[in-house]
Amino acid sequence: MPYSHHSHSGQFCGHAKNSLEEIVQIAIAKGFHTFSLTEHIPRPIEDFYPEEETEHTEASLAKLFDDFTLEAARLRVAYSSEIRLLIGFESEWIRPSTLGIIQGILAKHSFDFFLGSVHHTHTIPIDFDRAGYERARAKAGGTDERLFEDYFDSQYEMLEALQPPVVGHFDLIRLLSDEPDAEFKDMKGVWERIQRNLEYISSYDGILELNSSALRKGLAQPYPCLAVSQIFIRMGGRFTMSDDSHGADQVGTNYARMLAFIQQAGIKQIHYADLEAPRKDSRFPTAGFSSISVDDLARLPFWSKNQ
């Protein structure tokens, strides 16, 4: 009965599939203990994804997010006897106006936690398609190394401004790079930024997401890669698990491979959002985080059920 802290549905995300209720139902069928509903925040029209440009206005995208919070709350009650559902969102960090959008969302709604993510560098999406990645790289100076530096600088700005309880796909920037499994080797400035960001996350007791979506997209390791994970281990950092599913067929995908990675990395504890845990962040009075040892995690019946 493991955990996921990052998911999307076709009902509330244009590049996903299935209704939110269908996502919850498959999570129950697969034996999840805790599953978090975390749709993307609304964005200004200049930051719409292609599938949104013909379907939405800024007002309708904002209403869609409001509708998500209502549906998530309904599902939490409806399925309370079968699964623990947490309600959050996945942030962006695109341009100065993003901070105001996030502050407005936090003021309007009550959440259990949220994911702090970066999908853009120089306001250009870096994981949506190769063409976008190459545009961002050209704007950064023409090399992966320069783009990586800018990405981690942008991430640091997000971390300082938001102190997100969970940091989403820490090294997403490597997905479309020339050597996505190179673990940032021989990039001194990048490594310095990675260590700086991890130290900051550790300083406010943030949690790093282990995200299995990298595996289904063809990478050899989840986010973050082994070298980054082991730096955070040495800092005493905390980790959680996510599938970052964008449809029912991706719920729990590659979790067995991610468990093997967790064991290889030497991670000893996995943390999960818990409505019954002590609250440490006053912004989120409804939930804290509990933990399970990796040894106990590996003994759960989920693994034999989902081979």
User: How would you name the oligomeric state of the polypeptide chains in this document?
Assistant: single chain
Walk across the major sheet and give the strand order. 4-7-8-9
- Work out the radius of gyration: 18 Å
How far apart are the termini?
A: 13 Å
Binned strand content? 5-15%
The CATH topology assignment of one domain is TIM Barrel
> What's the number of extended β-strand segments?
11
Shape: globular
SSE run: EHEHHEHEEEHHEHEHHEHEEHH
Largest sheet: 4 strands, parallel
CATH class of one domain, anyone?
A: Alpha Beta
**Nearest-integer average pLDDT:** 96
Please give the count of helices.
12
Helix content: 40-55%
- The CATH superfamily of one domain is known as Metal-dependent hydrolases
The structure class reads alpha/beta
Second rung of CATH, namely the architecture of one domain: Alpha-Beta Barrel
Low-confidence segments, given as residue ranges, are: none
Protein name: Histidinol-phosphatase
EC number: 3.1.3.15
GO molecular function, one term: histidinol-phosphatase activity
Pfam family, one: PHP
Q: What can you see in these coordinates?
A:
The structure is a single chain. The chain is an alpha/beta fold and 307 residues long. It has a domain at 88-300: TIM Barrel (Alpha-Beta Barrel), CATH 3.20.20. The chain is built from twelve helices and eleven strands. The strands form four sheets. It has a four-stranded parallel beta sheet with strand order 4-7-8-9. A three-stranded parallel beta sheet has the order 1-2-3, covered by helices on one side. Strands 5-6 form a two-stranded antiparallel ribbon. A hairpin with a 2-residue loop joins β5 (120-121) and β6 (124-125). The longest helix has 21 residues, at 58-78.
